[in-house]
Specification:
The protein has 21 helices and no strands. 80% of the residues lie in helices and 0% in strands. The longest helix has 49 residues. 57% of the residues are buried. This is Na+:solute symporter.
Amino acid sequence: MGTIDITVILIFTLLVFVCGLSFSKSGKNMKSFFAAGGALPWWMSGLSLFMSFFSAGTFVVWGSIAYSSGWVAITIQTTMCIAGVLIGFFIAPKWQKTKALTAAEFITDRLGYSTQKIYTYLFLLISIFTTGAFLYPVAKIVEVSTGFPISTSIIVLGILILIYTAVGGLWAVIVTDVLQFVVLTAAVLIVVPLSLDKIGGIENFVSQAPENFFNLVNEEYTWGFMIAFGLYNLFFIAGNWAYVQRYTSVATPKDAKKVGWLFGGLYLVSPIIWMLPPMIYRVLNPELGGLADEGAYLLMCKEVLPVGMLGLMLGGMIFATSSSVNTTLNISAGVLANDVYKHFRPNSDGDKLVKVGRTATILLGILTILIALLVPYMGGIVEVVMSLAAITGGAMFLPPMWALFSKYQTGKSALIVTVITLVINAFFKFLAPTLLNFSFDRAQEMGFGMGIPVVLLAAFEVYARSQQKATLEYDNYQLKVAEKVSETEEEAAAGNKKGTRVIGIGVALTGLMILILSFIAKTGALLVGGMGILVLLLGSYIILKTTKKDSD
């Protein structure tokens, strides 16, 4: 990687960092710091949800599967589209109607504080491993493209992420997510045609691809796996506390629906576009083995992107993948401040709680860095992500989500289902291979992990309804929701204007950077220049629209 690419990475890093830090004064209270005022524009929340989920594995996890297994990686991600559409129709508006700042607050209102306390400790424990698993691909991208040691990359990037997340709160997360979406969309629309041109066009790609490369499923990722993984995505995207924040931070249930639909729509199109580069690289270089295929995406980019654009693509990848880290850090810190510290210090004012949240962000960020350093010793990122999904997805997120719809679920029933599922899943993952000489394949592991909580919750539901159990917890919850008056704060409107303006400026500057790079590009200059102009115009339009609103 040359001096120009490294310079572009540093400039883009500075741009993202400044955008995040520009919201240092936005965290006047818990609602502004952890919910962006509670009236976030649906399109911002939807794009942030997409980037928070998409970036966790696209480049490394799904890119690795695309390189080794082909179209299977696209089939896997199509399950996310289906999940997003269903969430938009049925689940996202339910979350918005709870009027809760966090999922933990909903659990307190609906299932009781004792239940929430146990869920909080479990969530925080799991989230540390989750953010560590998300930080690792970021460092992997840097290692493949620059040669920097992965341990150094993890530490430096982890510190950068925790700083701007701790300072700017949810607005810092949202704005940097939207900026990264624009950058990466522009970059991939340059990478795909250049990659196809590198191997002589789409016909050569299809003819030279390995046998069965375009099959929808294979022996490891079967239709059974797809169904189970689809259920996991439904539970995870709908019930993960970090993603619930995207549904509760918008103004109305209708906006929450749009958040889910935008996510689903993007996952209808993006998997095909994003998975083509590592698939094409399999034809170009079929020799990657072991964990080396985790770098297939970046290796393809290095082959075709003109000078400077590789740096911008890498910068976008780094901070897009970081989105999953900052999202989880923000909500985890929010839970510690709003649902743990506040319980013991109920008279704490907003300033004190925000300070607690920022301190929690830093401490959780340090733990995230430590976990990320251990990922290579856990079997690689694909193994870590899939195992976490199978063991914790249904167990943690389905019981509280079920309680959104059921009058009969209680704190006791939810906890019993969670604990039993976690124990059984952990036994078959870690102990059964040694004690029983038995282990699940990928599809069985995922199906078992998702099926147990569904069966247990359904059984309790049928039993409670047949016995006509009292619904005291649910009735009390309804009263609590009725007491929560929907606040329309001027701060929310001001935050939306500032957030939109910062996004516009960031997008325009990125477009200008791409346009400048087109003048020094030796290949694809016209393509790069055209994309730069489009991005510059988009950023200018956003700025003008915001300015017009101010004048009105």
